Amino acid sequence: MDTKTWDFRNINAHLPANDDIEEIKRIYQQGGLIALPTETVYGLGGNAKNDEAVKAIYEAKGRPSDNPLIVHIHSMSQLADFTQNISAETLTLMRHFWPGPISFIVPLKPGYLCDRVSGGLSSIAVRMPSHKVGRYILQQVDLPIAAPSANLSGRPSPTLFEHVYQDLNGRVDGIINGDQSEEGLESTVLDCTVFPFRIARPGSITKQMIEDVIPNSVDAVTDYNSDKPIAPGMKYKHYAPDTPLTIIRNFNKVPTTLSEWHKVAFIVPDNKKHLVPQKAQFISLCSDTNDLKEANHNLYSILHRLDNDTNINHAYIYGFNDSEQSNAYMNRLMKAANQQEIEGEDL
């Protein structure tokens, strides 16, 4: 398959050519797959009404078919087509946080979307991105677009066009280049089929931020123990580079018998650089241990970098202390490191 690319990085300076938009719209309508940028990560988009398109998403990613997809929209008016019985509290949160990096799981109205997109569930996760390019594409195409992260299943999610191209060139119809994703981690997923609501996947919109809008609306228990995932990233291995990765909180616990320090990378905040062994490689995670937003933004790019650098055969990465602000980062990191962590107090 030939994969076409479109460069929309200068959308603020000029609108894309009509021919490009018509081509993208036609591909989506005909069941093709096009990766598009969002503020969280790049998504692999397909028409959520088209069963063959959604099937192709799972095949292109090598993704298990019981792992549900998030449907992306550009307007709340689209909700009436495929959702039902959305609570007043949920609508309040949608109006407050959309467009933005949060997905809401709501009751599904049968018959509009294809059955495959929900993974066999009676609910659907839906989101309205804020990324200028991603939202512009959704507005022009005017279809509900199912869009998991645009990477091979299990691999680190893509935050750059180059990440998508590396994983999916030749496997999809097209890729839209729209600069680096601002957030860097996937959206918060809030299960609104129950009340209090439950966070099915942590992201940059935290429990406290939600409860600042509707007090006492989020269950403190957010761990779903079920073989049937209701949101992406709940059941299967995710976000993992091929390079062995170990989470570290205490440098005194690092093995001292390593023979090839020059092939070991330490991914830590700049203010911890002085603790990195002299012969090891240093990769900046963020400016300091308080800058979780920068760490979130940089995480996936760093994981991609590990696999592209033949001079790194093992990496240690900084683990933040447990807090509401670090939940999303540590959720992704624990999966990326396959739970491998050197125990000990924070540095």
UniProtKB/TrEMBL annotation:
GO cellular component: cytoplasm
Family the entry assigns: Belongs to the SUA5 family.
Originating species: Staphylococcus lloydii
Origin organism lineage: Bacteria, Bacillati, Bacillota, Bacilli, Bacillales
EC code: 2.7.7.87
Protein name per the record: Threonylcarbamoyl-AMP synthase
Residue sites binding L-threonine per the record: T40, H72, R127, A147, S187
Cited InterPro entries: DHBP_synth_RibB-like_a/b_dom (IPR017945), Sua5-like_dom (IPR006070), Sua5/YwlC_C (IPR038385), Sua5_C (IPR005145), T(6)A37_SUA5 (IPR010923), TC-AMP_synthase_SUA5 (IPR050156)
The UniProt record lists the keyword ATP-binding: yes
Keyword Nucleotide-binding: yes
